[in-house]
Amino acid sequence: EAGVAQSPRYKIIEKRQSVAFWCNPISGHATLYWYQQILGQGPKLLIQFQNNGVVDDSQLPKDRFSAERLKGVDSTLKIQPAKLEDSAVYLCASSLHELAGENTDTQYFGPGTRLTVL
Amino acid sequence: AQSVTQLGSHVSVSEGALVLLRCNYSSSVPPYLFWYVQYPNQGLQLLLKYTSAATLVKGINGFEAEFKKSETSFHLTKPSAHMSDAAEYFCAVSETGGFKTIFGAGTRLFVKA
To answer: How many contacts (CB atoms, under 8 Å) link A and B?
Structure first.
């Protein structure tokens, strides 16, 4: 079974530029998560999708970050414009569970995209 | 609101010694608790999870953790450390259904030969 795929693996941009990350979850997984992991810190949940609907985006800086999962499968996370403090690893994860309120399900993580903003 | 505190950003043990990584949580609802491991340049991998069943949870690679409600703790242990255990370990808490997962800051485990 293929794991969670992310691209690119590395990205270097200048501040105020735009950048987009792509994630393809494990086939059949209904829930998709985007996390930001700053060096020396634990991952911070940015947004959680259930199929193609958003169930939690309370920590997403909506003035510059956006994410979509149009067909309930793969997803893109965009930053526009980027700031120096956005330098981090962006992790995508997916889990199988389909219905809110069921027992939590295991999250499977991709390798991440390392973003450096200069 | 939920939170997770991992005591000790770095832990060093000798090969064959006991591994103990500490995690305390705060939650207003019955929590689901997790331990993940992250090897260099790799994604996070689930070691074990507690979801209100048995309080002693066994995971992969010989790790286990015990949920202690009275102490609001979920410490990770392994009886005998191996060199391959050197990695970063994250404790996490979520609400029922996997919502609002919050990770601790992580503990880097060093294993000395």
So the answer is: 68
